[in-house]
Amino acid sequence: MKEKTEVQQGTLALMVLKTLDVLGPLHGYGIAKRIEQISGDLLSVNQGTLYPVLLKLEQEGSIDSEWGTSDNNRRARFYRLTRSGRKQLRIETEDWEQTATIIGRFFAVKREDLV
Amino acid sequence: MRVLNRLLVRIRNFATRRRGYARLREELEQHLALQIEENIRAGMPVEVARRKARMKLGSVEVIREAYRSEEGLPLVECLLQDCRFAFRQMRKAPGFMAVAVLTLTLGIGATTAIFTFVYSTMFKSLPYPDADRIIRIYDSRLSGESTGGLVGVLRFFEVKEHSRALESAGFYYFDQATIAADSRLPESINGVGVNPGFWRVFGAQPLLGRTFTDAEDRWNSPEIIVLSYSAWQKIFAGDPAVIGKQVTLNQAAATIIGVMPQSFEVPANIDLWHASHFEPSKWTYRGEGTRFLNVVARLRPGITLPQARSDLAAIAKQLQRQYPDTDANWEFTCESLRDSYFGTLRPAMLALIAAAFLLLLIACINIANLLLSRASARESEVALRRALGASPARIAMQFLTESVLLALVGGAPGVVAAFALIDEVAARMPGRLGVPGTVEMNWPVLAFAFAVSVATGIAFGLAPALQRRTTSLNMALKRGETRLGGSAGNTLRGLLTAVQVGLSLVLVVGALMLGQSVWNLLKNPLGFQPDHLLVFSLKLPWNTKSELANNFYAEVQRRITALPGVSAAGQVDAPPAVDWHLRSNFDADWLPQIANQPAINAEDRNIAGDFLGAMGARLLAGRMFTEQDQQSKAPPILVNEALVREYLPGGNPLGHHLIVAGQQHEIVGVIANQRGIAGALEKPPGSVVYWPANATGGVVNRYFVVRSAIPPQQLFHEIRDQLYHVDPRQAAGPMETMDNLLDKAVAQPRLNMWVLVSFAAIALLLACVGIYGVVSYFATQRMQEIGVRMALGATRAQIAGLFIYRVMSWAFGGLLAGTVVSFGVMHLLRSQLYGVQPSDPRVFAASILILLIPVLVAALRPAVRAANMDPMWALRAE
User: What pTM, to 2 d.p., does this model score?
Assistant: First the structure.
């Protein structure tokens, strides 16, 4: 079984924002499940590391939270994206795409191209 | 922006002590519940579902910690936690705290006190506007002795007129005066004569009234005076209506036109400034007699000191060409005002800084040693922390916090003590240092003290922090195995002990040498008997006719000599130990006479009465002046030993003549050298020529020297009484005993000596405390070993000897190194020594003895105690 890779805190924050962007307000468990789903089990996220990241994003002002009721009538804290969070998401997405493009070019290079 | 948001939220959380625990716990509970439900739906049994859910979530403690570290200000909270812990540790170890605090108080207190001096003299700005543009200008002789830097009157005016580097130029000259205010008795006060430029140079604003203008300084203008603050308080009790008041100054009318504020002390201890009324056209004479001005000047904006120097050099050259017979041998030198005040102190300051630094180093070493001992006792605690997950950085930070806190706690009393000391001592400092407001504590000094405390704390805190060994945690936790062997820390400790002893030796050697210098200064043969000698000055108005002056002084002399209990009384323009200069150039009839190159340059002193008898000075050859000599038109002179040795070695000067102003004067006697002529006790006596006071045109200002066995106070009164009968308008200048005057002359070197002695004593104390601690620690560490040795038959003496040998071998190493360093240091400080060789072996031997004995005692006590332990108890100890 291939080793599951650990994920860095910065990228975890990005995944949280994207998840909230696509799916709307969610509680902590829901976010964790969706991230697991999307990454297709290639990532191992100790689910508990999510909560400090959520706190950090909230203190930055990228997300907002409030108590609400989940589908099975449990009390849960729901998180949603704020306007500045949306902006941050857009900026980081652009950064990642640019990085991916550059790296992609390097991977595609053959010896003949450079001689 | 986001980072700022986070920071602000963190600060808010920290300040309000908000904890998100409740929220986190609830969220985690919900999370777990949902995960368990899903697991159950997926088919797992309940217990497995629960366990898997927990594992998936991760360690709750870790989550909580990560959460916490996002919340508040973790760094600050760590710091606070460490501080609280440190205080608890301090309370639990009062013995250690007492020693540490005492050590730090001494070290940091001494450093702070020294820095106060250094700051006040080297860095604090002088209390005049733009004070670094003010300079002093001196006349200095191209070859030979200068006259204390005093400038000739006409030369001053020439500089003022021709200099392109100066914005304003002023002078002051000392002028002890008699003032009679209202109907009070005449009092003798310290006055100075100044020109209007003097006020412009300092830019000083008067407290009341005004200073004088150019128009008021003409030679025939009425006399005007500006009072100093202290005189205003003393004579007029601070009466604001004093402006415009008329007083009698030196028997002439004078008007008070201003009062200066308390901060203006140029020169120090002055009662009033009066106008000089000097006009260059009225001065026809250029010679030595006009050389009495202290010149100050303000540089033009943009002009530097070197530029001013070359400007003045050009003027000096011009004067040399223009007036070859008087000015050929003179040039101008200048220095900044600050240098003129404190320049001579610089080497002493540097030495004191070095000594303070050494002391601080010794204090740090001691505490580092003590902390090292405690650190090994806390090994198990440290190991436990690391096992629980503390990073090395965190542990180091904890140690450093403890030590910085210790330094601050110990340093605070030190600063308070320094403050009290400075307060007490500042006014009694010699010279310019004693001017109120010069040496005092202020914010820069406090900031420095704080910085030094923190630096000290970090310095000795690093020792145990660095010493953490990376042995296996297991072993450290059990803490039993390392008892019998030696450990690496012992080398460090021994080295530190050696350094301490060495440094103490340097200080002790310095103290002894300075002490001996002061002793020599005071006890070397002075050439006269300073005991039972009363000295005071009388000053007549400058235009008193010579006959009147001579008669006045003769009458005073007669009355004083007639007083019962007075064995002898004499007159002289200034006795030794008084800072007064008058030099002349002579030709000699046994030396070739070249135009414009006089053969001899010597101090002049005019004497009358029984000067020799009163001073207790010896006549080496020839005779004293007679009454006839005092009336003579071409009076004979006396010379001193130094003049004979320099200009007629091995010959007999009696019957020879010295020639001055075209006149021949026969040498009729030779007087033994007197030290301290013109004030400097350290300098070897120079050539002096003695004249009969009454014959040389009537000397108006004279000192009386009176030898008597009567107690000085009583003699004061009787003399004042007699004086009143001769002339009620006269007041006698301050009466002092010669012993007092000499005392003041050695005040500076004596102060240095006391400082170094106190430093050496503190250093010795610290070294002994350190050694005591080290030996105690060794004894505790090797208790089991002692038990074993005793069981195997070692005697108590042998056990004690074991420890003493260990420590003393390090101490001897330190002594050796210290001796070498002392050699070097004393050579550097040669200028401060008087009559002592920097490599005097007796001083070194005495220092080593002084150091060894307390050190031995300090080592003996714990060693003997160790040796007297019950061997059974020692064996069982852990």
Answer: 0.69
